[in-house]
Amino acid sequence: MPLFSNKFTPKTIPVRRTDTSVIKKEFGSDYASKELSLELSPPKIKLGDFEVTFEDGQWIPASGKAGAAHKEIIRLKNELEQLEEENNMLRLKFEILLDMMTDKTVEAEQAEIQRAQSLSSLKQKSKKQKW
Predict the structure, then answer these.
(1) pTM greater than 0.90 (yes/no)
(2) CB of 53 within 8 A of CB of 69?
Protein backbone atom coordinates (compact mmCIF):
# COMPACT_ATOMS: atom_id res chain seq x y z
CA MET A 1 0.00 0.00 0.00
CA PRO A 2 1.60 3.23 -1.11
CA LEU A 3 1.91 5.94 1.43
CA PHE A 4 0.97 8.89 -0.81
CA SER A 5 -1.67 7.35 -3.07
CA ASN A 6 -4.79 9.10 -4.31
CA LYS A 7 -7.81 7.50 -2.68
CA PHE A 8 -10.32 9.87 -4.33
CA THR A 9 -11.26 9.16 -7.94
CA PRO A 10 -13.86 11.54 -9.38
CA LYS A 11 -16.80 10.22 -11.38
CA THR A 12 -16.91 10.87 -15.07
CA ILE A 13 -19.21 13.72 -16.06
CA PRO A 14 -22.09 12.66 -18.34
CA VAL A 15 -22.38 14.23 -21.80
CA ARG A 16 -24.70 17.24 -21.86
CA ARG A 17 -27.78 17.28 -24.02
CA THR A 18 -28.14 19.94 -26.69
CA ASP A 19 -29.74 23.12 -25.44
CA THR A 20 -33.11 23.56 -27.19
CA SER A 21 -33.47 27.20 -26.20
CA VAL A 22 -30.74 28.17 -28.70
CA ILE A 23 -32.60 26.43 -31.50
CA LYS A 24 -35.87 28.08 -30.49
CA LYS A 25 -34.26 31.51 -30.46
CA GLU A 26 -32.51 31.06 -33.79
CA PHE A 27 -35.19 29.32 -35.85
CA GLY A 28 -38.44 29.79 -33.91
CA SER A 29 -40.45 27.43 -31.78
CA ASP A 30 -42.29 25.84 -34.74
CA TYR A 31 -39.04 24.79 -36.39
CA ALA A 32 -37.61 23.55 -33.09
CA SER A 33 -40.71 21.49 -32.30
CA LYS A 34 -40.57 19.88 -35.77
CA GLU A 35 -36.84 19.15 -35.67
CA LEU A 36 -36.74 17.92 -32.10
CA SER A 37 -40.18 16.27 -32.32
CA LEU A 38 -41.42 18.21 -29.34
CA GLU A 39 -45.16 18.16 -28.84
CA LEU A 40 -45.82 21.17 -26.67
CA SER A 41 -49.45 21.70 -25.81
CA PRO A 42 -50.74 24.54 -23.66
CA PRO A 43 -50.82 23.78 -19.93
CA LYS A 44 -54.17 22.60 -18.59
CA ILE A 45 -55.54 22.54 -15.07
CA LYS A 46 -58.54 20.51 -14.04
CA LEU A 47 -60.24 21.17 -10.73
CA GLY A 48 -63.20 18.87 -10.38
CA ASP A 49 -65.44 19.53 -13.37
CA PHE A 50 -63.77 22.86 -14.14
CA GLU A 51 -60.93 22.80 -16.67
CA VAL A 52 -58.85 25.80 -17.85
CA THR A 53 -56.04 26.12 -20.39
CA PHE A 54 -53.33 28.76 -20.60
CA GLU A 55 -53.32 30.34 -24.08
CA ASP A 56 -51.91 33.66 -25.24
CA GLY A 57 -51.10 34.77 -21.71
CA GLN A 58 -54.58 34.13 -20.30
CA TRP A 59 -56.32 31.31 -18.50
CA ILE A 60 -59.26 30.32 -20.67
CA PRO A 61 -62.06 28.06 -19.42
CA ALA A 62 -62.14 24.95 -21.59
CA SER A 63 -65.20 23.11 -20.37
CA GLY A 64 -68.56 23.60 -18.75
CA LYS A 65 -70.84 26.62 -18.82
CA ALA A 66 -67.93 29.04 -18.35
CA GLY A 67 -66.15 27.62 -21.39
CA ALA A 68 -69.23 27.97 -23.59
CA ALA A 69 -69.85 31.50 -22.29
CA HIS A 70 -66.21 32.44 -22.92
CA LYS A 71 -66.38 31.15 -26.50
CA GLU A 72 -69.61 33.09 -27.05
CA ILE A 73 -68.00 36.27 -25.66
CA ILE A 74 -65.01 35.88 -27.97
CA ARG A 75 -67.32 35.34 -30.97
CA LEU A 76 -69.37 38.43 -30.05
CA LYS A 77 -66.22 40.54 -29.61
CA ASN A 78 -64.98 39.50 -33.04
CA GLU A 79 -68.38 40.28 -34.57
CA LEU A 80 -68.44 43.67 -32.82
CA GLU A 81 -64.97 44.51 -34.13
CA GLN A 82 -66.01 43.53 -37.66
CA LEU A 83 -69.17 45.67 -37.47
CA GLU A 84 -67.21 48.65 -36.14
CA GLU A 85 -64.77 48.37 -39.05
CA GLU A 86 -67.68 48.19 -41.49
CA ASN A 87 -69.30 51.22 -39.82
CA ASN A 88 -66.07 53.21 -40.11
CA MET A 89 -65.79 52.26 -43.79
CA LEU A 90 -69.37 53.38 -44.45
CA ARG A 91 -68.75 56.68 -42.66
CA LEU A 92 -65.69 57.26 -44.81
CA LYS A 93 -67.65 56.49 -47.98
CA PHE A 94 -70.41 58.87 -46.86
CA GLU A 95 -67.87 61.67 -46.29
CA ILE A 96 -66.34 61.08 -49.73
CA LEU A 97 -69.75 61.13 -51.43
CA LEU A 98 -70.70 64.29 -49.55
CA ASP A 99 -67.47 65.98 -50.70
CA MET A 100 -68.10 64.89 -54.29
CA MET A 101 -71.67 66.20 -54.16
CA THR A 102 -70.48 69.52 -52.74
CA ASP A 103 -67.91 69.87 -55.53
CA LYS A 104 -70.50 69.14 -58.22
CA THR A 105 -72.94 71.63 -56.67
CA VAL A 106 -70.29 74.36 -56.64
CA GLU A 107 -69.38 73.59 -60.26
CA ALA A 108 -73.05 73.72 -61.29
CA GLU A 109 -73.57 77.05 -59.51
CA GLN A 110 -70.46 78.51 -61.15
CA ALA A 111 -71.66 77.35 -64.55
CA GLU A 112 -75.08 78.91 -63.87
CA ILE A 113 -73.46 82.20 -62.86
CA GLN A 114 -71.28 82.21 -66.00
CA ARG A 115 -74.31 81.46 -68.19
CA ALA A 116 -76.28 84.25 -66.53
CA GLN A 117 -73.39 86.70 -67.04
CA SER A 118 -73.02 85.74 -70.68
CA LEU A 119 -76.77 86.15 -71.25
CA SER A 120 -76.77 89.57 -69.59
CA SER A 121 -73.81 90.68 -71.68
CA LEU A 122 -75.57 89.48 -74.85
CA LYS A 123 -78.72 91.38 -73.88
CA GLN A 124 -76.71 94.52 -73.29
CA LYS A 125 -74.99 94.16 -76.68
CA SER A 126 -78.31 93.58 -78.42
CA LYS A 127 -79.81 96.69 -76.76
CA LYS A 128 -76.83 98.79 -77.86
CA GLN A 129 -77.12 97.55 -81.45
CA LYS A 130 -80.85 98.41 -81.58
CA TRP A 131 -80.20 102.07 -80.67
Answers:
(1) no
(2) no
